[in-house]
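Notes from the 1:1 (GR / supervisor)

We went over the backlog. Supervisor wanted to see one worked example end to end before approving the batch request, so GR pasted a single chain during the call. The sequence is below; no edits were made to it. Supervisor asked that the structure be written out right there so they could see what the output format looks like.
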Amino acid sequence: MAVKHNVLAVILGGGAGSRLFPLTKERSKPAVPLGGKYRLVDVPISNCINSQVIRIFVLTQYNSASLNRHIARTYRFSPFADGFVEILAAEQTPENPQWFQGTADAVRQVLPHIRDWGIDTLLILSGDHLYRMDYRGFLARHYETDAAVTISVIPCTHDVAEGFGLLKTDATGRVVEFSEKPKGEALETMKVDTTNLGLSADEGRERPFLASMGIYLFKYEKLEELLSRDGAWMDFGREIIPAAIHTDNVQAFMFDGYWEDIGTIKAFYNANLDMTWPVPKFNFFDAEAPIFTRSRFLPSSKVQNCEIRDSILSEGCIVNGARIYRSVIGLRSRIERGAHVESSIIMGADYYQTIEEMREDKMAGLSRIGIGEDSVVRRAIIDKNARIGAGVKLLNEAGVEEADAPDGSYYIRDRIIIVPKNATVKDGTVV
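Structure output shown during the call:
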């Protein structure tokens, strides 16, 4: 199916990303590195490009500098096409003196920029979900049912359903009810016959709930009407969608693939580590629907006298005499002799240190960027440009759930140790 020419996508960059702190300490949530060489925002943008939706706005308001750089350096379309990927940062205007107050308010505030394109369909996406979808099927369902709104839903089991906004549909797939994270008896009333949307009888019994993925298609005129109906409505899931269900044709589109909300440190950690398995849930090795990112023209990684198992090794790394098990090693990572990295995410570095810089660091008693000699890193996330000294042990053997180092050199969330961007962990430190 060819996509209609007047479709535009808006990717919501999210709020402050507090649940992903400290990874969002110096960057917006969509700019958080993923899988060794990508950024979270590359996933929805690539899904759009692979679906022939090539007019894309990314909305953001927090720590947007690194996201701006990534978008500007990565996504450049032919001058003979009308494709673009542009950042729309929150701005104060006489009409809207406030920053974005929620997902719906963010779209409301940028309507003047969207309106210029004369579109009839708006695709609204999240910037922190990990999945691969061809939106052309989603669009086809939207047009075939003449829906005012179409919501992408994923069937789920009883044990995870209460963590999502759930939709109830009739036999035709029309949404008739929405409930935000129901529990108990309210949860039971949200069961639907998911075989109507394509599941087999066995799958339907196992996954009788439909969770909203936070992915929407709107008739543009209807969206403007909904956003102007009550200027106090700030959120799609809590306000706009429930209101539309009562007055308009709201349809469900079932997605039955891998989908993960990368909204917490634990979810981020697990999603990255899953990529190290022989057959991961999310596979970057897909020639039909590649995930795009910035071309960096880095040298091949150099590995000397190492033991590396079940791991991802990105470009431009120098690994010397280290042991690495089930870990994701990011761009330009440097791991020294005797280091042991296990079940960890090493994000790498934004640049290479020169010989002179490393010499000056040594004279000043500083560790070079990377993992120092004889250090042990287990169940940790090491952000970019971090300096892990020699003989450091990042283990959390006490199983601490949450902690903050007084000097900001590390944090613990969900028992996972996180060393933030540009931080230094001194020689011999034990966590």
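Supervisor's comment: The chain has two domains: 7-274, 302-425.
Batch request approved.
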